[in-house]
């Protein structure tokens, strides 16, 4: 291994190849030998693949060519991804040629994937590889993106080495960090953003000095006081054994900084690797700056809280509910100021607790000023009415005070230029090297020209703003103070990610700036979290009036997308345009190009709808720059005409060779970004395309429209005319660039008409939006006033509403019929008497009892006729309930909408493809959570008329699939699903259509959804195929339910013969002693035996379940003999043919051991061990099998399951471990000069959840209690009395995902079970649970 390099992940993977020539197997590419190599047969598209077993971010792939016939590698392509189908994975690099015996490194830029594939496209090809190395890190470790520092550094054991993805187990001095011997040594990681941290994994050094980790505190938080060492503690590390990695749960603690500190004198801190796992929290908060008049002491907490309450009340009156207000800092006079460029103010000097000023006057003044600002080019403001707390009006001439008096009065409002970047400095945290008098760092971002920062006279004075996130900074605007401006001379502006000034890049040096002058400095998109202004030199002082920072959050979203193009010239593939290589040196290895054709195009799928601010395009450098001329950049959500009909962002007249030009797209929304050159005989070449923007918070609009009409809207021409008129009206109101369409042809049955007013209601759905699940549900309410029943809340009419009587705790409920993950609930209030909704609570859950369900939101108030959206964040539940707690209350609701998706449907996270596509009926529409019942052509998939049409879903992981739900189209052609086979499996042979059949669909009625049970079939791919010629396959929705296979535990029951009365405790105990003695004679010592229940006449033997948990574990051993690695003992190959390729072995040593980490705690019922066949079977003699959770002494002190006296050569022996619990399984031979050899170790366990539950039944006949159904005996049974609706129940004590229920009938009178129904759910009421 190269010093300091990440570990080679390929060594832990599983290799395979397309074919095998002689004995040149796939494994030889990762055996570390330069004298062996892989070799396929001569074939079409030969390939080699390594399965890394987990998803990695791959930085680079290193290929070593064979020493002879090296030309066989020419043209090989390296791909990385998560698909077994080669061409579904993204390309990292192309190996044009590589000399015999040469080694080449290919940068893959952090591409994510589980599989690394090397293949050669074409016929009559051979693929031969000597060595393949894959270097990167596990995806999800946030530490690798951070910046590190430490209190001191020992030698070259620098801080960064603790996050270099190398655990330092081979050479600590090249991959571990260490401080000097000192007091309170510390190490800090800056994650560059605030994370919710779930766990921290720490690796100790392997060679010596493991005690240098003892007592380390893990601290997480956002403060840099005391270098971050005062942040809250996640955990204290008592000790970590040498070379081990321990995980510490931090329970979603929030923080930007992760510190490791050892308190005490003469301490040294050494870290070989720190991994941090968590997610960036999504903050839905607004940041508001407010100013108001007050002479009272706002530093008094009670006064401050009273102000917040009054303000919250005013906001609630204006419809701003569910708002939490707090002081971000203790109010001070100096923070309430006005800048003439960015804010205005109003209001007389007054007392908060006095009489109020004239609200009308204040509002008029404010509106007047807003109008003035609206008249300025490029600025907008919203009209609103101001309400203040009651105050007393003083002198009218003080309504618009001067800047000095403004410190005590006025409302501060920020008005932003339309479409302009925000001043990022306003959201940041400021600091400076020192403070002269009270001129603090914050005054440079307070918007006032009369205040300024000021340091002491010192060496290298500085001012800094922490933007809290990494920005691409376009420009910095600096305003000098009005006097003594010379203090600014020689200022340097730096941007970067380091707290050390000189580690950051320089944007500009300002020699001089006149008093009160403003200068704009272009920084050209420099990236950094910190903007620093400093003056180098001695006896300097720094004073700043205002600093503004403009730019945008760093992040090219193109790199995560998927590309395609109209045609491909040579190997100038589409994905090369997003490989982060601008191709300025070798265009042919990093640029995309089409053939010469009509209207050539290139398309990027961003995989989500983005608000796109700009697109940066790089032209090729070597020649042919004209191939970019006339390119149209188009952005949108449609795939009609391959996306080339989407709206235009820009047209590129020309880009000079090798240059990168940026095109502003003004926050256009779209998932697809196309580049097309209209015209004949054109060729499109792109060397790099970068896309900058953000995922929109509200991706789609949902519009309800209501209008009067007596005309026949079933007439298409009439409908189109209505849309044109409506579009014209919207355009007059400023709503341009709007596309209107009918989501379905109007029909009487779906468009309810109010008989009194002739009002027609039509719902217009945005393309691809979730359906309103409430429409499919069953509504009810606590009582009905007059005729206003519960259904009126989902009828789509604003002139009807649900209405209860005046009562205690009135409620309205919709039963969604299935469990949904609810994203949001939309409530529309009635147009009159809307105050009746005040105080309503929205709850979501699985219980009919209101208060057993979880609160989503509280509706403090809602204006008459108003609509409010309440985010429920994916809360799970079958019922959505709106209720008002209290006496003499009325629930009255005009409309309730519920948006989300079925819980447990794993299809929504998958990737789809199909054999062909009719129009824009693309494959992904079958998993868009829209069943297409209103407009099939926008939410259903369809193939062309062809032989054996098929559709495939890649679940991206192997699932145990319990059922598949298929929805047929509603409008016509329901027969286009007849005969479809549902196939599930892991093979992509014949495009996955040869996998096992779950079910055959004879027919599904139009618009219906049918469910097909698949009995826990395992597979990654779900295919739908109709065998036969001239067939079309149409699907409106496919839902897949199941779970990623969990390694199950085994439950072992023992059987023996006995005529004595085992219900006698003394007899039972004596039997256990005899059994223990026999086991001890067989080498099973340290065994505890007990009766789990009182024995009965016959204990029936139960067949143990299948499932070898070892194959998913992580093995390790005390030493390794040549290539006999620890992992070979769990490779599912018992090594009976070639022991040296499939067995593990240690060297000759004292107490050799082998350990398996199961990654979780198991109840282990048996361990199966296979001995080598060729020779040396004595190398397993005396092995102790130990199971437990401790890693003390490398796990070799855990309890013994069994001792292996001997296993004959090539044999497999099973050792019962009686449900011993443990995460680690160790094999150790005590003694000197021993070798431990293992050809296979299998670990079995499973768990019947009912055994740990509590049983009950509706009644007991004789002594046949409910417990008899889980006692394992075939001679006992439960029995109720003869009664109405008898039942038996087991409470599993926790919520399970139940895969299967196994029922054994009694040996006589078995007909009594006929008609029994099995239900599963969370309610004690039988019928509230699902069949």
In short:
Pfam families: F5_F8_type_C_2. Acts as a defensive agent. Recognizes blood group fucosylated oligosaccharides including A, B, H and Lewis B-type antigens. Does not recognize Lewis A antigen and has low affinity for monovalent haptens. With 1331 residues, this protein is mainly β.
Binned strand content: 25-35%
Please mark out the parts with pLDDT under 50 across 5 or more consecutive residues, or reply none. Answer: 1-5, 281-287, 333-420, 696-704, 747-769, 1045-1053, 1097-1106
Largest sheet: 6 strands, antiparallel
Question: Average pLDDT, to the nearest integer?
Answer: 80
| Straight-line distance between termini | 58 Å
Number of strands: 59
Specify Rg, calculated over alpha carbons.
Answer: 36 Å
The oligomerization state is single chain
Q: How many separate helices?
A: 6
Share in helix: under 10%
| Basic shape | globular
- Backbone structural class: mainly beta
Organism: Cirrhinus molitorella (mud carp)
Family: Belongs to the fucolectin family.
Protein name: Fucolectin tachylectin-4 pentraxin-1 domain-containing protein
Domain Fucolectin tachylectin-4 pentraxin-1: 6-138, 139-283, 421-553, 554-698, 770-902, 903-1047, 1106-1252
Defining traits:
six-stranded antiparallel β-sheet, 1331 residues, globular, 6 helices, Fucolectin tachylectin-4 pentraxin-1 domain-containing protein, Galactose-bd-like_sf, 59 strands, disordered N terminus, calcium, mainly beta
